[in-house]
Amino acid sequence: MISSTRERVYRAYLEFLETAESKRRWSVFNDIPWDALDASKSSEAEAQRVELFCSEELYVPDYSSNGLEMVRSIFGMAWFQACWALEESRHGLVFREYLTRSGLRSEAEFAAMESEVFANAWKLPFETARKMACYGALQEGATYTAYRVQRELARNAGDRVLEAIFFYVGRDEAAHAGFYRAIVEMELSEDREGTISDLACVLANFKMPGDGLIRDYRRRLASSGAGISPRAFLERVVMPLLTTLQISRDELRAAMKRLALDL
Questions:
Q1: pTM (2 d.p.)
Q2: Domain segments of the chain as ranges
């Protein structure tokens, strides 16, 4: 990454942080209406969805340590990674609190889930910071989309607590996706063809962080309603990203063809 781009990354992080500090910070203790928690409005299906989201968030130590090691020499990216880890850790905490305070999961059940999760370690799915920025834009966008659906489900069920939780965690995910999009835009200005090739590679090999780590991940996503469909991923995540980045379908298609020839 050239020096001028490093400075732009730093400025992007400052903007991200300023918005986070002035408009987006929230408290697990003060901003969630825990007094409104009503166990009668909770269900096992709901518990399974939240448990799956919580399990994925429990890999934050792996996400952050691997991510920091990759970008430690790029100030803006490294400081974003540290800030990101704090925000994602809050997500895992609020999901845990919801599961235990509602009585949907006991402390013993949660301890067993933790042991199962921590038996595996997450590794970086791609080998360069640019590919990981592409991955972040897609993954955070997909997570935001899933959380938005869950917020609507909670609202329809009259669960004010879970509705608030998904509002706050979803807002964070949208901000994370926005930062990664900004980084990819910078990479495009520096090396358009190479960046589009990297995006094509990430799309061709994309999977969510818990896929392959969390037991029966795909089946549980589908059966619980926690996931989004491939069509929703394309329409609500991929296509808006391409529009924002001003990448045409023809450009992406050509990159996909080159990728296939290289395999």
A1: 0.96
A2: 3-15+39-262
pLDDT digits (tens, 9 = 90+) for 67-112: 999 999 999 999 999 999 999 999 999 999 999 999 999 999 999 9
User: What fold is seen in the domain 3-15+39-262?
Assistant: Ribonucleotide Reductase, subunit A (1.10.620)
From CA 69, how far away is CA 82, in angstroms rounded? Answer: 11
Cα(255)–Cα(144) distance, integer angstroms: 27
Region of residue 252 (phi > 0: left; psi between -120 and 50: alpha; otherwise: beta): alpha
pLDDT of 128: 97
Q: How confident is the model at residue 41 (pLDDT cuts 50, 70, 90)?
A: confident
Distance CA 149, CA 7 (A): 37
Residue corresponding to tokens 């949907």: 104
CB neighbourhood size of 2 (10 A): 10
The amino acid present at 42, given as its one-letter code, is: S
The phi and psi torsions of 11 (rounded to 5 degrees) equal -65, -40
85-88 contacts, C-beta under 8 A, 24 or more apart:
85/60, 87/20, 87/172, 87/176, 88/57, 88/60, 88/63, 88/64, 88/172
pLDDT in tens, 51-63: 999 999 999 999 9
